[in-house]
Give the backbone structure.
Amino acid sequence: MGSQRRTCGPQSHVSHFFILGFVKEDKFMNDLLALIYLVFFAAIAGGAFALMSQNLRSSQERNSLQAPRKRSRVHPEAPQPGEEVLYVDFSRERLEQIYQQTP
């Protein structure tokens, strides 16, 4: 009788209580890690929102401080009035004259 193994008894219940206690501790750690994750997530999301709002506010202030510029519709490389420019006429009549003049 002394050499037989007992499958149930006080020792097996102790091990089950230990396992249940470990599971409770593991659940506490999971809850703690979830809380830490949510705190850091909220901090990063809040920082991103603050950064975007400050960026928008500063760009609005910069645009409001600048005097409105009058945009000219003249191209910067356009010739000034009275300035001579090189002109090439590619009209059909002009090209026919050039073609007939060549030997």
Q: What stands out?
A: The mean pLDDT is 77. Residues 11-67 form one domain.
